[in-house]
Amino acid sequence: MSQSSCANIHAEAKICVFWDVKDFSIPTMDPDFISKKFGSALKERGYRGDLSILMIGDKTTTLPLIELKDEFERAGIRFSFIPEEVSGTKYGRDMKLLVDMLIWALKNGESNLVVLAKNIEEETPLLYLSAFRVRGYKVFSPDHPKLESPEWLYESLSESCQTPTSKGGSSQM
């Protein structure tokens, strides 16, 4: 895949990776290493802004990682839990992702939004991804036809670790 470079206006902007841990399982590796690999992959493409990573999942998916919460947070990786009422549904994951993106955008202004989620099914999140783009945000999403896919970012982890924690998104460390 050719590596595209970012436009100058996005080079120094903050970056947030919204990571659906059901769609993209968490590899068994040190959280600091994950953060550094993502940072390196983004820098290779010209993005140098501060990096935040938000793992989105239900409590059962991320439960094995809760005991390592402090270690993840020191690495710039936070957890965002899907409400129990919609936990276990793709709709719930998509809506939680959208809400977290809106909160991030309100707090941080124009920035780079990286969506590591597959098969966004609802029309509403796809419309919001377009709206973010129109308002000056750089958005990466594998499911939007006009946006660059961010799968190269996740693949940067697989270069170092061949075995994800589990298939289907459950995480164990």
TrEMBL record:
Pfam families reported in the protein's UniProt record: NYN
GO annotation terms (biological process): regulation of gene expression
One Gene Ontology MF term: RNA nuclease activity
CC annotations in GO: peroxisome
Ranges where the NYN domain occurs: 14-119
Record InterPro entries: Marf1 (IPR024768), NYN (IPR021139)
Record protein name field: NYN domain-containing protein
Native source species: Noccaea caerulescens (Alpine penny-cress)
